[in-house]
Amino acid sequence: MTPNRSIITRISVIISRVENLTALYALLAIVVVVLGLVSLPFIAYQNDQLYEKTLDPESTLDPYDRGGVPFGTTPVKAQYPENSPYAGYVTAYLTPFSQWLADTTHHMGTTIVAHPGGIIDEILYNTRGLDTVVETSILFVAFGIASYLFRRDS
Amino acid sequence: MDDLLVLLFAAVALIGAVSAHLQRDRFGKLIAVGIVFGGIAPFIAARGYLDVLIAVSLIVPVTTIIILLICRRDAHDA
Amino acid sequence: MFNLPTTNIGGPELFVLEFGDIVTYFSPYTAALFVFALIFTVLAIVSRPERQVDFAFGGDAYYTKVVDPDLLRFQRFMAIACGLATLGAMVTGDVFNFTLFASMVGITNIGIVAAYRNRHVLNAAFQYGIVAMLASIPLFGGAAIVLASTGTLSMWELFGGAMAVPLIAKAFLVLGVMGEGMAPFYIAKAEITRAQGAPFILMVHVSSLLLFLRVTEIVISM
Amino acid sequence: MTPEFILGCIILIIGVIAAGFPRPMTYLGRLISLEIPGFGLLLIMLAYDEMLALLTFIGVTAISTFVLVRAIERKEAAE
Amino acid sequence: MIAIYLVAALAVFAAIRATVEKNTGRKLPYVNVMNFAIAGTIVLLLNHPLALVAAAAYFVGSTLEANAIASTYAGGEQRG
Amino acid sequence: MLGELFHILAAAIISWILFVTVDIFFRLPEAGGVSGASAIARDIEAGGGALSGGTMMGNIVCSPDASAGTLLAACGVYVAGIPGGLVAAALVFIGNRICHDPGYAGTTGAVLATFVVYGFTQVGFAATDFIAGMVIAILTIQGLSHAHASRLLARLWRVRE
Amino acid sequence: MDVAYPVGLVVVAAAIIIGFTALVREKDDLHRILLTDLAEILALVLIALVATDLAEALILPGLVVGISELMAVSEVYIAKEGLRAPTGPPFRIEVMNSAPGILALILVAYGIVLSGFTGGVIAAVGAVFYFMCRGHTEQFELIETVSGYAWAFWIGAFFIFMFLPGYWFFGVMIAGGAILLKVMAKMSLVGTMRGGGPDV
Fold this sequence. Notes:
Largest sheet of chain A: none
Number of strands of chain F: 0
Order of helices and strands of chain F: HHHHHHH
Organism (chain D): Methanoculleus nereidis
Helix content of chain F: over 70%
Pfam family, one (chain D): EhaE
Largest sheet of chain F: none
Structural class of chain F: mainly alpha
Number of domains of chain F: 1
Strand content of chain A: under 5%
Distance between the termini of chain F: 42 Å
Distance between the termini of chain A: 42 Å
Largest interface: A-G, 66 and 70 residues
Radius of gyration of chain A: 25 Å
Oligomer: heteroheptamer
Shape of chain F: globular
Transmembrane segments (chain D): 5-21, 54-72
Keywords (chain D): Membrane, Transmembrane, Transmembrane helix
Number of helices of chain A: 7
InterPro entries (chain D): Prd_NiFe_hyd_3_EhaE
Structural class of chain A: mainly alpha
Strand content of chain F: under 5%
Number of strands of chain A: 0
Radius of gyration of chain F: 15 Å
Order of helices and strands of chain A: HHHHHHH
């Protein structure tokens, strides 16, 4: 490195190298986090959240018992309930298999709610379905890239 | 689960985590990761999520076996 | 029309389409961005790529490089996906949805660039991919902090002014979009001179420009 | 502040240190160390009863480990 | 209900022994003791038929892990 | 309190005898079921133990054998009586197949232990005593001193032969 | 709950500082990929701290986005370095003959019961493990076509939810099944991508 280079030239040499990009970005993130750390303790948790959890350890659907009767309206604290006229139907729905599980045993709540129906399906498919559209598209695109490169090189 | 049990199993998990960092041998590291999971399993059981525990305890060994694919012994100690 | 807290979001509301909790909308500003993105997406669909011309030194001969049709199809697919993601990011009315669209723009940009066999170009695409993955911390983290501190993700609520969004969340969002949309600033170096396929490369530039404009609007309005 | 949460935070920090500065600075050492912050996240999810997320996370960890193993074994074979 | 405290204490003891031991082959038996203790704890914590399946799944899983580690340590399958 | 401790100790001795007998009957100390078991045996021998005892310890580590069968059978009896023990035996069988174990020591041990544990619950023992007792029993084999335990097992193995 | 959130944020901030410091010092590209995996975990912690059902529904897409980006970037890395599949005898241990059949059966069956993202990932773990240990026949095209159709089915289900909400029941069933198929198919392709397969 020649000694008579100005400091700006040196910095621009570092920045212009692609290999240093990751380190630069990481450094920037560290700076933001350190500055943010000053304000972090003052971030108050808003107690009025959407889709709040209510736990009922006695229920057979334990971590995911959100109440409601199947094929009836269930109050779900969505952002805009009027946009999803059938919000709550999926939450309360149990397939025959999951109904049988719920009647039989006490510790299968996660399996029951992952089976079609339940609060998570309500959010993922109904009220926030667009998120899931984008997400599956990302999966599609990423695997498109991977399989294109894989096949080209093999 | 009362306080004493919490402390005991937390101790198991912490011993595993710290030793996984400090071990230099690759098999030692893997064993220590297994110990961490041993400390965590009772916490899942105590909350009553048994189906999750079954699934997780079958998948964690699969992860370990996948890592073992690149752990051939000839690369290092005698 | 709906029970939304504000009917006036970034100018007079032109059109609203509700997907459950995610209410997409057009304001004059985003409509302009949308039309811009739409034009380039259509361009990517209909255009034929330019062919690069190599001159042989010491003579008058020149030849055009052969464009691999497989590569062309792949790049066109990626460019269209990138355009669609940009369109989505322009109109969405939800912070988390916006971050997802931004990630999709990032990954399609990787795809457009990574299609080349040139090692330098691949290296640039790889470094950019690492940054785009790192950017998921600020992006998702920013959206998560917005959710935790205000209790909502909808821009219709957040733009009203009643909610105090923490500064760190805004900084995270900007940082995240910087990571996802950083591509043109250095891919350009490796890319313009060494690779063919101009309209698709253009898509990289357009999408990141529009992402920046959009995130600026979001951060200022919150 | 449940015990799971506190334990999860401690293990997360230990794991980040372990993965950031693994003791033998090898690919394998770092890959194994990456499991530890994963367990920290698992405990934090457990503390908030996010069981579906926990289950998905463990599955994704296995698959991403496989992806990384594939890259590492090719890299080591090339050396 | 002293059994569960006894089992938990044995788990800690075994974990410490496994950490202190240097040799991989001699480490694994200590881990095995810890797995016994944890599997017992799962059933002792929750008296439910599914807890039995969970304990068996944990035990089989960790045994499989130990088996795989030991076999890799031994240099893989002897062929031919 | 003291009575329960006494029960646990008695249960430990009973299950120790049970699983060592079954394992030696099924010739576990003879050869390692998988290469990992042989490696553990070599390391234990290098640490001052006996080879055949070490082989048996390696087999215990590498596959659910009679000791695991006893533990799970005690758990099964604790949660659901005799049927629980038989379910535990089935689970041990699946575990044996997963772990590339050719033998049937685990399954046999589980079935035997089911009836033994059930019998003792009729005379004042609790099934939990057997769970804790089995952990203590396995501790004496695997967790205290590998050299001494393997020599002891080797001596028993010579008696069997 | 109220105390836990700021504490969690401080912990994550400390973790980000440590992890990114390691990243700044790291020069090797493969090590950088490994560290980005760490970054994904930290992003998920931030979402998990919100602790509502909504947070959980946000984690699931976040996870899948993370793994697909990791997949693409590692493939770019392999292409960039021009790395080849290792030659020489494949690595075998005994349990790789016995475990995959039973474990993959359990995991795939359980995954199909679960459905949706979770089920897709669990079933894919089983499939990846099976392909890894037992080798595979090349049927890329079939798997990819299946997942393409699954994607289209899911989009159809989305429009049912949005425009014909009265038929929500069919929407749930189609969506659960289609996402299961899609995620599982894509992820199990990873298992076949290791190439070769053991000569058993």
